[in-house]
Design brief:
Helix content: over 70%
Number of domains: 2
Number of helices: 7
Shape: elongated
Strand content: under 5%
């Protein structure tokens, strides 16, 4: 396979793909490299089947998966920043109001867990004890509440 030609053709297209999804220049470039590397590895491992589509389609499928993985990582960072931000008690009333509104729209149990995490800085086991709820249930409520707070469509 002529990888040089494929990279020359796909590189700019993948870059536009990631930039169109609001990724910054440097991150888009990194995601292009990740996509091309993963494309090479999967092709060499025999995962590409030309009877199911062409190489470009396969490459964009990989890029789409990388986009989703990156969004998930960013959501986790956003939640971590939310927890850090809440401890600093922002003086921005608009930001605080928007956050409170988003939290208030969660299901009651999810809202309770998120508020205890953010407002009271409690650990998950402490929340489980306080709410008289199994620890795994508290973990699930945190995960689903976090997901609902930072849901993005893609």
């Amino acid at each position: 396979m002529a990888w040089d030609l494929l990279v020359e053709e796909l590189g700019p297209r993948l870059y536009r793909f990631f930039r169109a999804r609001a990724f910054e220049d440097s991150l888009a470039a990194d995601l292009v490299q990740d996509s091309l590397l993963r494309l090479y590895e999967k092709t060499e491992a025999g995962h590409f089947d030309s009877s199911r589509g062409d190489m470009v389609t396969f490459a964009f499928g990989i890029a789409l998966n990388i986009q989703k993985e990156t969004y998930r990582k960013e959501k986790k960072w956003q939640f971590d920043e939310l927890e850090e931000h809440s401890h600093s008690h922002s003086s921005d009333p608009v930001e605080s109001l928007a956050l409170r509104k988003a939290i208030s729209m969660l299901d009651e149990k999810e809202r309770d867990v998120i508020q205890l995490l953010v407002d009271k800085d409690l650990q998950l086991d402490e929340i489980a004890t306080l709410l008289d709820t199994p620890l795994n249930t508290v973990k699930r409520l945190r995960r689903t509440g976090r997901s609902r707070l930072f849901r993005t469509s893609y």
